[in-house]
Amino acid sequence: MQVAYLFSGQGAERTGMGAAFYQQNAQFKQAFDQASQILGIDLPQLCFTADQRLQTTAYAQPALVALNWAIYQAVQTELPPAQALLGLSLGEYGALIAGGQLSLVNGLTLVKARGRLMAQACQTNPGAMAVVLKARAEQIEAACVVGQQSGLVAVANYNSPQQVVLSGTTAGVTAASNYLREHGVKRVLPLAVSGAFHTPLMQSAAAAFKPYLTQSRFATGTVPVWSNTTVAPFTATKLATTLNRQMVQPTHFAACVTELSNQGIDTFIELGPAPVLSRLVKQTLPTAKIYQIADPQTLAATVAELEVAHGSNR
Questions:
Q1: Half-sphere exposure at residue 256, Cβ-oriented, CA atoms within 13 angstroms
Q2: Rounded Cα gap, residues 225 and 235, in angstroms
Q3: Contacts for 235-242: CB closer than 8 Å, 24+ residues apart
Q4: Organism's domain of life (predicted)?
Q5: What residue ranges of the chain have pLDDT lower than 70?
Q6: How far is the C-alpha of 225 from the C-alpha of 305, rounded, in Å?
Q7: Alpha carbon distances (Å) from 208 to 100, 114, 151, 292
Q8: Measured between alpha carbons, how far is 155 from 281 in angstroms, rounded to an integer?
C-alpha cells in the first residue's frame, strides 16, 4: 500500500468543521489551538459557530489550512505514513506544512497574507468562476474563444476528466457558460466567489504576495509535496516562485493524481471537511482506494477499513 494524503482547497469550508475532532481528539485540539495563537484568530469561534467570516476569502483560507494540518496531526498515530502529499490550490499550503517544507508559523503567516491579498484583489478586479461537468475538451476550448469576445475567461482548474473550472471576468465567464449550455453541456454551475482565481486578474495579489514569499525560509521536507502548477514535487529552491505562479496560473490536480498513480500510489486519503477531492480522484482513477476524514467517526471507519484490507496499517 502506497499512500498519498490530500488537503482541501478553498470551497470545502463548512460551518462546524473540526468541532467533533476538537472535542474528542487531544492532538487535534492542541494543533488547532496552536494555529489559533499563531494566526491571532479564534478558530473555534470562526469554524464551529455560524460566523459569516468563514465565507470570506480572508478568513476561509487560514481556517482551512489550520484545519487540514490539525487533522493531519490527529491521524498520525492511526494511519499509515505518507509517501506523497497533494493539495488543491490553497490545500498545497497544508500539505507543505505537513511535509516539512514550511514551518507551521511560516506557513500560516503566508496563508493569512495570501487570503487578505486575494480578497483585496477580488474587490479591485471582480470576477467569476463556474464549474463545468462532463464537457468535451473541444467544447471547453470553443467556449473560451467565444467568451473572450466579451471578457477574460480561461480554464482555471483541471480537476478531473469530468470537471474543469472556468474563471475570468463576469462577462467572459457568463458568455462561455451560455455557449456551453447552448451546445448541450447540461451542468455549468456558477461558484460562490467574487474573484477570478488562477487568472491574470489575481496579478495584483501575486505581486503583493511576492515579498512575503521572498522573505520566507523553505526546507527540503520529509515527504514529497506535488505542485498543481508544475505537476512535479516542490523543491526548496523554486518553492517561492511556484507558489507565486500558482495564484495566476491554472491548477492541474487531475494530472498530479495520474502521475502519483504512475509512481505507485494506490491509496488516497483526503483530510478536510468535505469529500471534494475524493470525488475528483474517483473520476480520475476509478480503481484507486479512496478515503475521506473529516471527524473522529470517519477516522475510525478508515482505520477499520484499512485493517480489513491490509491487516495492521502501521
A1: 32
A2: 9
A3: 236/101, 239/96, 239/101, 240/210, 240/213, 240/214, 240/216
A4: Bacteria
A5: 311-314
A6: 25
A7: 25, 9, 24, 35
A8: 19
The C-alpha cell of 145 is what? 474563444
As a whole number of angstroms, the distance between CA 172 and CA 170 comes to: 6
Burial class of residue 184 (count of CB atoms within 10 Å of its CB; 0-12, 13-18, 19+): exposed
Task: Decide if 89 contacts 198 (C-beta within 8 A).
Answer: yes
Q: What gap in Å lies between CA 205 and CA 117, rounded to an integer? A: 5
DSSP bridge partners of 128: 168
| Predicted TM-score of the model (pTM) | 0.96
The DSSP result for 249-281, as a single string, is S-B-HHHHHHHHHHTT--EEEEESSS-HHHHHH
Asked whether 179 and 171 are in contact (CB, 8 A), the reply is no
What's the CA gap between 190 and 177, in Å, rounded?
9
- The domains located in the chain, with CATH, are 3-123+201-310 (3.40.366.10), 128-192 (3.30.70.250)
Phi/psi of residue 6, nearest 5 degrees: -115, 140
Question: CA of 46: how far to CAs of 14, 154, 291, in Å?
Answer: 10, 33, 26
- Residues tagged active-site: 89, 198
C-alpha cell at 40: 491571532
Contacts of 132 (CB under 8 A, 6+ apart): 140, 163, 164, 165, 166, 177, 180, 185, 187, 188
For 124-163, what is each residue's pLDDT tens digit? 999 999 999 999 999 999 999 999 999 999 999 999 999 9
